[in-house]
Specification:
Blueprint lengths: L22 H10 L2 H12 L2 E3 L7 H15 L7 E7 L5 H11 L3 E6 L5 H16 L1 H9 L12 H15 L5 H7 L10 H5 L2 E2 L8 E2 L4 E2 L11 E2 L17 H12 L4 H9 L6 H8 L7 H12 L24 H8 L2 E6 L14 H4 L1 E6 L2 H9 L4 H9 L1 H18 L20 H5 L3 H19 L1 H16 L3 H13 L5 H9 L4 H4 L4 H11 L5 H13 L13 H16 L6 H9 L8 E3 L3 E3 L5 H4 L3 H9 L4 H14 L1 H13 L5 H6 L9 H17 L7 H13 L6 H20 L12 H4 L3 H13 L15 H8 L4 H11 L2 H7 L1 H14 L2 H12 L6 H14 L7 H18 L1 H5 L8 H8 L2 H18 L3 H16 L9 H6 L1 H5 L5 H10 L12 H8 L9 H4 L3 H4 L1 H11 L6 H17 L7 H9 L4
Parallel strand pairs: 1-2, 2-3
Antiparallel strand pairs: 4-5, 6-7, 8-9, 10-11
Length: 1090
């Protein structure tokens, strides 16, 4: 205990000369001599401080806060300070007290002073007791609550407190508490894993807060000083940390986690981290893996294998030039781009099912993607260029290997859409329908590339074509459905393979190539196209196989089942259609199915049926049409048929709507069918539909629910700008009112399972209805500060003020038009939008800011009103890194470049917005601001040096912190465009950035800075005028050398060595004496001595 302001000591200091009581005493201690201020600064730097019994009116607190504020502005770093803050019963007093302490930078723990102080005394006593018990106390804090599943039956605020306490206990640096936690008997319940992994714990010395499972590694720099680097158990980059040991805390937590490998809680958590594991965790999970149940075995083998790691790829360097020539290294790039890997997400579980997993797809929803799908699509889009065709022909065999890897990964991971029983969803390979092909993605695009290259392959070298097609046949015989179809397509399109061999392939193996549904589009074409070419032996073999039917066990149906008859008839029909002579007893069956289309629609209940169309219904009476619609196999097909009916017979569409409601139609029938008119432009028809929808909603109150209200909201959103007359408006607004009431009562939408972000809001009924009002507002004659139109304001009020999901979605949509609404009605916007942007729950604040930052127009008046809300959101921005944190970085960067004083202004007790941003921003947010600066530099063109000297340079020099743990390769990459567009300010830009350690790289880490920076530097002989000004290796060789040295400290990837070597040659030519410098020699060694 320290008596900072003295202690009454009658014997030693009878006159009280050591006491600090008067204003003069405080002035001497805190201002003139400053010894108390220095002590307080050290106290707050080293300890977590709690004020007990203090008031904001106390001179002591005023002096303390002033001392802290002065040191904070000088760059000091402190632990958080807390205060027990009493408040009275007056309305709004609690909020006022909290806000007042927050403004001082001290975290209030509010309590009602009417409750007296017994509870506070008990809390402080309990804290002191736990502190005295030391390690045993921390172990108890960690173990006791976690013996039972999460969450405990307590209020949310208490659960959060328990989580914070457990995280604090486990964070003991030597790992001793975590070890007891991992060795606990019984072991702590794995349901605590996900919530514990989200708790952030402040670190010392101004470091960013860390999470338990991402704790910094205790590594030492070359100078022997500890330089902690995050070493997560799982997450982005974790698999690359082979040389970075885990902290004792995460090591022990990894042991605990591995004990629960057969738990969905652990697999779900690893999935949420992208399936990337630290090598230690992968090793622990792999130990005695065969003892686990099969689904978990399969899941962990996939994760541990590294199949979820995106292959390292240097970037898209050549596609823009494909119209002129094929680059020398184009083949290497295409094969790298075509290399597949897996992504993973949690699977859908109906009603949160707790059933144990029966297969790996019950544990994880895997997907196969290509390393760079855009590059493969670029090649496909240029397929008609001769030089591209020639390149693809040369690469057909290795591209086949990539497709085989796709099949292998898909089958191991049970990827829906690519495994043999699901490949049916891929359309006919011979289709040249651009609309269909545009929907092909990833691996299927690779398949398409091989399909379109086949004619050129055979034309250029028949022998090579034969070898390739036979390879496809071999892979097809192994059961890979994609290759069965690819081989059948090749056997139809070319004569490379003898017909007898082709028939043996079709009938061979386990029968899937000839009988299973997935090969039917290609098999149908093959039988029809080749029927006249079959020899008698080949045709007889096919007919015998058809007569015998599918092999036993291939289908669960009996030989006489309708499905078997249909399968036999379809195959006979294609042979007859192609001109084959069939035995007389089979002709009737063949004729029955002769006109069957090649592409059929699958139905679980009935096998394969020909899809019905709107033409089948359009001529029927309303009652019969409604019955026919409801006879479809599912409501998805019902909805599409109803939507098509609107185009075919608008009058019948109106007639069947009430009939469908009376018959209990629901789901996608309404979601798709009611949205059919949303693109209408005819005002008269729109008015009629609005009246019909309103009457149906009034007559059938329960109809307007779930997907029906979503479709109506979609239509209203589309028609908002077209409802211009007063008569139309008086029909539009009542329907809007009915739809709004329905949207606020629906809590079943799957949208509510997602975070309340912009993507969710623009698709949810509440957001669509808000969009309809905004579009309708555009038609009103409004003026600045004129207020919302009286006719519309009640609807804006109704949608903005409330706490249902629809209200939150509406506020998000309104926030996306914040500057416009603020200019129109400042008071309404401040109360309805800006206030919740400051004071709502962190989750809603993030959503509102996400809405605003979607298109963040601003003016000085709006920024003035937003200032407090900005300060309030900054501590939370990293919770939505990509949508809020990065956008705030770009936004504040833009504001700084336009109105620097707006973000630089500070007060005695509050830092500037820019300072607050940097204190909370992580690498991603800083990188976003750096990219915004680079984009403005690029847009400035010849004026970029002026922008550098007046704005960008001073920001980096004077305000950008040099803390190494937040300035990583992401931030370096963000500054690439600043350097590339600095022109004659390049030397100073290099000096500033290197001076703040903003250009960096680490071993084993993808160097995206070099990917971007080297991409846009001119190479030897390049004449592109747009980038000649970036030839800084010639103009400023010494600075370019220093920059490359810093950027390659972590090593040089093989695909960068060529360009680095070229730059070194340019530097040597421009200033020969640099070739003997240590930096040049070091760079040359890193580049392989080239």
């Amino acid at each position: 205990m320290t008596y900072l302001h003295g202690k009454v000591q009658k014997d030693e200091d009878p006159n009280g000369e050591g006491l600090i009581l008067t204003s003069a005493d405080f002035g001497a201690a805190y201002l003139r001599d400053g010894w108390a201020a220095r002590f307080v600064v050290e106290l707050f730097r080293e300890f977590t401080v709690l004020f007990v019994g203090y008031s904001l009116n106390d001179p002591i607190v005023s002096y303390l806060v002033d001392a802290l504020a002065a040191d904070m502005h000088a760059g000091g770093q402190f632990r958080r300070a807390f205060v027990l803050a009493p408040y009275g019963n007056a309305a709004g007093e609690r909020e006022k007290v909290v806000k007042s302490w927050d403004a001082k930078g001290i975290v209030p723990l509010p309590f009602n002073r009417g409750q007296k102080y017994g509870r506070q005394t008990r809390v402080l006593t309990a804290w002191a007791k736990e502190y005295r018990q030391g390690l045993n106390s921390r172990i108890s804090v960690a173990l006791e609550p976690t013996r039972r599943p999460f969450p405990p039956p307590l209020p949310d605020v208490e659960v959060k407190s328990i989580l914070n306490n457990i995280a604090w206990a486990l964070s003991k640096p030597d790992g001793s508490v975590a070890k007891h936690f991992a060795d606990g008997n019984p072991s702590p319940d794995p349901t605590w894993l996900a919530p514990l992994s989200e708790v952030e714990i402040p670190l010392r010395e101004g470091q960013a807060p860390a999470r338990l499972f991402d704790w910094p590694s205790p590594t030492l720099g070359a100078d022997g000083i500890e330089k902690p680097h995050l070493a997560p158990l799982a997450g982005e980059g974790a698999a690359c940390l082979t040389s970075l040991p885990l902290s004792p805390i995460t090591f022990e937590l990894g042991r605990w986690l591995a004990q629960h490998r057969a738990s969905r809680n652990v697999s779900d958590w690893v999935i949420s981290r992208g399936g990337q594991l630290h090598p230690f965790l992968a090793q622990r999970l792999n130990f005695e893996l065969e003892t686990l149940a099969q689904p978990y075995q399969a899941f962990w083998r996939i994760v541990i294998s590294g199949a979820l790691l995106r292959p390292c790829f240097p970037g898209r360097l050549f596609p823009p030039r494909l119209t002129r020539y094929w680059p020398p290294d184009g083949g290497t790039f295409l094969l790298r781009a075509a290399q597949p890997y897996l992504t993973v997400r949690k699977p859908f579980r109906l009603g949160g099912s707790k059933e144990p997993p029966g297969r790996v797809s019950d544990l994880a929803d895997f997907d196969v993607v290509l390393t760079d799908e855009d590059l493969v699509r670029d090649v496909y889009d240029h397929r008609t260029e001769d030089h591209v065709t020639e390149a693809v022909v040369r690469l057909a065999d290795p591209l086949t290997s990539s497709l085989f890897d796709v099949c292998r990964l898909a089958e191991e991971a049970e990827v829906f859409g690519l495994t043999e029983h699901s490949v049916v969803w891929v359309p006919c390979l011979a289709s040249d329908d651009d609309e269909v092909i545009r929907r092909w993605h990833g691996p299927l695009l690779l398949l398409r590339l091989l399909v379109v290259a086949l004619p050129a392959i055979v034309r250029s070298d028949m022998e090579a074509g034969l070898v390739l097609v036979r390879r496809w046949m071999v892979l097809g015989r192994q059961g890979h459905a994609l290759f069965q179809r690819l081989a059948l397509h090749a056997l139809t399109e070319t004569d490379a393979v003898p017909m007898t061999d082709a028939v043996q392939f079709v009938l061979g193996g386990d029968g899937t190539a000839f009988w299973h549904f997935q090969t039917w589009p290609e098999l149908a074409r093959f039988l029809r196209a080749r029927a006249a070419s079959f020899g008698s032996d080949d045709l007889n073999a096919l007919v015998r196989s058809i007569e015998g039917g599918p092999p036993e066990g291939l289908f669960s149906t009996q030989p006489g089942h309708d499905l078997v008859r249909r399968l036999r008839g379809e195959r006979l029909g294609k042979l007859k259609q192609g001109g084959a002579e069939l035995p007389a007893p089979l002709v009737a069956l063949a004729r029955e199915f002769e006109t069957q289309p090649d592409v059929l629609v699958g139905k679980v209940e009935t096998g394969w049926v020909v899809p019905a169309t709107a033409e089948d219904i359009a001529h029927l009476p309303p009652t019969e049409a409604a019955e026919r619609l409801l006879a479809y196999q599912d409501d998805w097909d019902q909805g599409h048929a109803l939507s098509d009916l609107f185009a075919k017979n608008e009058g019948l569409w109106f007639d069947v709507l009430p009939l469908l409601i009376e018959r209990g139609a629901s789901g996608s029938l309404w979601g798709i069918g009611l949205a059919a008119p949303r693109e209408l432009k005819d005002d008269q028809t729109i008015s009629r539909i609005i009246v019909v929808y309103r009457e149906l909603a009034e007559q059938h109150p329960r109809w307007l629910a779930d997907e029906a209200v979503a479709a109506v909201a979609d239509c209203l959103d589309s028609w908002g700008k077209q409802v211009s007359t007063e008569t139309e408006l008086h029909a539009f607004l009542p329907l809007w009112d009915l739809a709004w009431a329905a949207s606020t009562q629906n809590g079943k939408s799957d949208l509510l399972e997602r975070p309340d972000g912009v993507d969710t809001a623009i698709n949810a009924p509440g957001g669509r209805l808000a969009g309809a009002l905004l579009k309708r507002l555009l038609l009103e004659p409004v003026t600045a500060d004129g207020g919302l139109p009286p006719l519309l304001k009640p609807f804006f009020d109704r949608s903005a003020h409330g706490e249902t999901h629809s209200h939150r979605f509406a506020r998000i949509m309104y926030a996306s038009h914040l500057v416009w609404l603020h200019r129109l009605d400042r008071a309404w916007t401040k109360e309805s939008l800006i206030r919740p942007m400051e004071t709502a729950s962190p989750e809603e604040r993030l959503s509102l800011w996400e809405g605003y930052l979607w298109q963040p127009y601003w003016n000085e008046h709006l920024l003035s009103d937003l200032a407090d809300a900005l300060f309030a959101i900054l501590p939370h921005m990293r919770e939505r890194e990509e949508t809020v944190g990065d956008a705030l970085g770009r936004f504040l960067g833009d504001v700084y470049l336009t109105k620097p004083n707006t973000v630089l202004a500070s007060t005695r007790h509050k830092p500037s917005l820019l300072t607050a941003f940097f204190s909370h921003a992580g690498p991603s947010e800083r990188a976003a601001m750096a990219r915004a600066l680079g984009a403005r530099m690029k847009d400035a063109g010849d004026q970029a040096p002026i922008l550098w000297s007046t704005s960008v340079g001073p920001l980096i020099r004077d305000h950008w912190p040099a803390d190494h743990h937040k300035n990583n390769i992401q931030v370096s990459t963000g500054f690439a465009d600043v350097l590339l567009n600095a022109r004659n300010a390049f030397p100073e830009a290099v000096d500033f950035l290197l001076g703040k350690n903003l250009i960096t790289s680490k071993p084993g880490q993808r160097n995206e800075f070099l990917d971007h920076f080297l991409l846009l530097l001119p190479l030897k002989g390049e004449e592109d005028e747009e980038i000649r000004h970036k030839d800084n290796a010639v103009l400023y060789p010494e600075h370019m050398l220093r920059l490359l040295d810093a950027a390659t400290e972590g090593g040089i990837a093989s695909w960068h060595t060529g360009r680095i070597s070229t730059l070194l040659r340019q530097i040597k030519k421009a200033q020969p004496d640099l070739a003997n410098s240590p930096v040049f020699v070091r760079l040359k060694e890193r580049a392989g001595g080239a």
